[in-house]
Design brief:
- The structure holds two protein chains of two kinds.
- By secondary structure, chain A is of the alpha+beta class.
- Helices cover about 30% and strands about 20% of the residues of chain A.
- In chain A, strands 15, 16, 17, 18, 21, 22 and 23 form a seven-stranded mixed β-sheet that branches. Chain A has a five-stranded mixed β-sheet with strand order 5-4-3-7-8.
- By secondary structure, chain B is an alpha/beta fold.
- Chain B has a domain of about 60 residues.
- Chain B contains two helices and four strands; from the N terminus they run E-E-H-E-H-E.
- In chain B, helix 1 links the parallel strand 2 and strand 3.
- The longest helix of chain B has 15 residues.
- Chain B is elongated and about 65 Å long.
- Chain B starts with a strand and ends with a strand.
- Classes of the chains: A alpha+beta, B alpha/beta.
- The interface between A and B is medium-sized, with 44 and 16 residues.
- Strand 12 of chain A pairs antiparallel with strand 1 of chain B, so a sheet runs across the interface.
């Protein structure tokens, strides 16, 4: 990578006798980054000392060492008179993009980079010395070049050590972090502190340190300060950085971050209506279904226990969405979130569709995306998954009939035409549906509508239950409506169908929706930008 | 010492100030139905009771399109422009 003619960052470092040394200093400079445990650095030390003796009166020669103790050792071992500067904080090494030691940089008097060399190539170093000697009109350094190897690779700079680089990035001037820093005193327990601050869903959080958030941000190419959503009820700005902070707390890996971002964008649309979803006393919750190639790439579970615990990608991605809504939007139980009972999906509910085990178009393709797109679909559900146990149906119409009977109970056996539902069909049930040939998703939906249909007269409120059509409304109906039957759902599209689960077991699952449509929540799918 | 980054929107809540109490209620009063079932019944009662007790007020009725979503900006602006007081009814 050519850095020629770039203005190098200014610095001020202490030398080995405690004096402050600044760069640039209105003179040409030769700066060499070294560390004590690098054999190549030790090889070049006598050359650097000779350069200092030859040119030190006319140019600045800075040896920049990366550990305090190592610097003292180098000074002693090579009896250096050249100043050894202490960059044990590694901030200058980081700012100079030093990846290898030794890195030798020559600059002009304004501090512009003229030349940079990594490792040791004898001919190049010798040429540099000759050039300097000619430019300055000074004798060449006293170096017996034949005594040196022709070539030696360098070692990794400490500033790119994975354990240190994230901290350096977080502290650097061009840091992607802008969020308010909260300092937790040494005597305080950071986990207890986060509980006290109300950041959590009731479970412990991973402390979102600047290093962890910087690492999380490597999961996306998007700018850390881009506002991707406005989160109600506080109408808080969801920047990529804020989402990353909540993703760290939830326990996500960086590669999950794009899913969380897309999910938050989806729920903050007018269609999904996250404000109403969180506020309702019915205790609704977003359910995330992931489709496309990202499922495999980030290790999402779509098979055994797909809707249960045990998968980090499933569990933490769903949790990150909920924490972002809580912390950025301010939706908290007892505040604007007011579920009568709530449900465990409010901690997390995210899984992937087992597209390869499905005979049909997967959810995202049905919803207008390409098969090779990675997407997340957000559905608002109030309960689930409730199990549909059918180990005995042998034909598709029988099994789809079971689905219809089970879904007729969404919310209440007499509550009709108000909600939607998510049906998760397990692989063994798929096999039953296909046993006698083709059976489409539309066939499943139509069978559900057919089986769940009830005569209006059976849906009246009565002594058995006050839920249903009130007597006065029934009386006011035209006779033909009184004699008609109602479907459970307004439209086949209100029955969302995906495939997931292990290969063993004839148990599908149903999630019950909330109020579907513009008065409540509408399903939203977003493409995941990686 | 551990440093963490603030996961919230960093808004310091601004303490809301109560409107000044003048000791009398005159002017324009908005009754806002949030569209929960039977909210309109509650507001009907309010309207007739308040008309009897406070002859100096004019009552305007409004309704949110749905209780599940915040009131649209336009409705909020309209209520603010046309009224001095608001009573919002939640019922079920």
């Amino acid at each position: 990578m050519s850095k020629a003619h770039n203005l190098l960052p200014a610095f001020s470092l202490k030398n080995n006798i405690g004096e402050d040394i600044s760069f640039p200093n209105n003179r040409q400079s030769l700066i060499c980054f070294v560390k004590e445990d690098c054999p190549t650095c030790k090889t070049v030390m006598p050359i650097l000392e000779a350069c200092y003796k030859a040119f030190g009166d006319s140019i600045d020669v800075h040896l920049v060492g990366q550990t305090h103790a190592g610097n003292l050792q180098l000074v002693k071992q090579f009896n250096l008179s050249a100043p050894m500067l202490d960059d044990s904080s590694l901030k200058v090494s980081f700012a100079y993009d030093v990846e290898i030691v030794p890195t030798l940089i020559r600059s002009d008097q304004e501090g512009r980079e003229i030349e940079r060399q990594e490792g040791f190539v004898r001919e190049d170093w010798q040429n540099l010395c000759t050039t300097l000697s000619n430019d300055l009109g000074l004798p060449a350094p006293e170096v017996d070049w034949e005594q040196f190897p022709e070539w030696r690779p360098g070692c990794g700079s400490l500033s790119v050590d994975p354990l240190i680089a994230d901290r350096l990035q977080a502290e650097a001037e061009n840091s992607p972090l802008r969020a308010r820093k909260i300092e937790i005193a040494a005597a305080d327990d950071e986990f207890e502190f986060m509980f006290d601050q109300g950041f959590t869903d009731g479970l412990p959080l991973v402390p979102p340190t600047p290093e962890r958030v910087v690492r999380m941000l490597t999961g996306t190419r998007r700018d850390s300060q881009e506002v991707v959503a406005i989160v109600p009820p506080n109408m808080g700005d969801a920047t990529i950085e804020k989402i990353a902070i909540n993703a760290v707390m939830a326990g996500c890996k960086p590669e999950y971050l794009p899913v969380v971002i897309a999910a938050l964008e989806a729920v903050c649309t007018d269609e999904f209506n996250i404000h109403g979803v969180m506020a309702t006393t019915m205790g609704a919750s977003p359910v995330m279904v992931v489709n496309g190639p990202i499922r495999e790439r980030i290790g999402m579970n779509m098979k055994l226990s797909a809707l249960g615990q045990g998968s980090r990608a499933n569990a933490t991605t769903g949790r990150a969405l909920r924490l972002a809504i809580r912390n950025i939007g301010g939706a908290k139980p007892g505040g604007t979130e007011r579920p009568t009972l709530g449900n465990p999906m409010k901690f997390t509910m995210c899984f992937a569709e087992w597209e390869e085990r499905s005979p049909w178009d997967p959810l995202h393709v049905e919803r207008g995306f390409k098969k090779e797109d990675s997407t997340v679909t957000l559905l608002c559900m109030t309960s689930g998954p409730t199990l549909i146990v059918d180990q005995t149906s042998l034909t598709a119409p029988q099994l789809a009939g079971s689905f219809g009977l089970a879904l007729a109970n969404v919310h209440h056996p007499k509550a009709y035409m108000g909600s939607d539902a998510l049906l998760v069909i397990c692989p063994e049930h798929i096999d039953t549906l296909l046993k006698d040939g083709h059976y489409s998703k539309e066939d499943v939906r139509n069978r559900i509508l057919e089986v769940s249909k009830r005569p209006v007269k059976e849906l009246l409120a009565d002594e058995l239950s006050g839920v249903g059509i009130p007597a006065d409304r029934f009386a006011a109906m035209p006779e033909e409506m009184q004699e008609a039957s109602l479907a459970k759902f307004r439209s086949p599209a209100d029955i969302h169908i995906v495939v997931a689960g292990s290969d063993a077991g004839k148990f599908s699952g149903a999630f019950h929706g909330w109020v579907t449509g513009p008065m409540g929540s509408i399903v939203v799918t977003r493409k995941i930008e990686e | 010492m551990t440093t963490i980054l603030d996961p919230t929107d960093e808004r310091v809540p601004v303490a809301r100030q109560l409107s000044p109490r003048t000791g009398e209620i005159v002017g324009r009063l908005a009754l806002l139905d949030i569209s929960k079932p039977k909210g309109s019944l509650l507001l009907d009662r309010f309207e007739s009771t308040l008309q009897q007790r406070l002859p100096g007020i004019t009552i305007n009725r409004y309704a949110k399109p749905t209780f599940t979503k915040p009131a649209p900006d336009e409705l909020r602006r309209e209520i603010k422009a046309q009224n001095d007081f608001v009573i919002e009814a939640l019922a079920d």
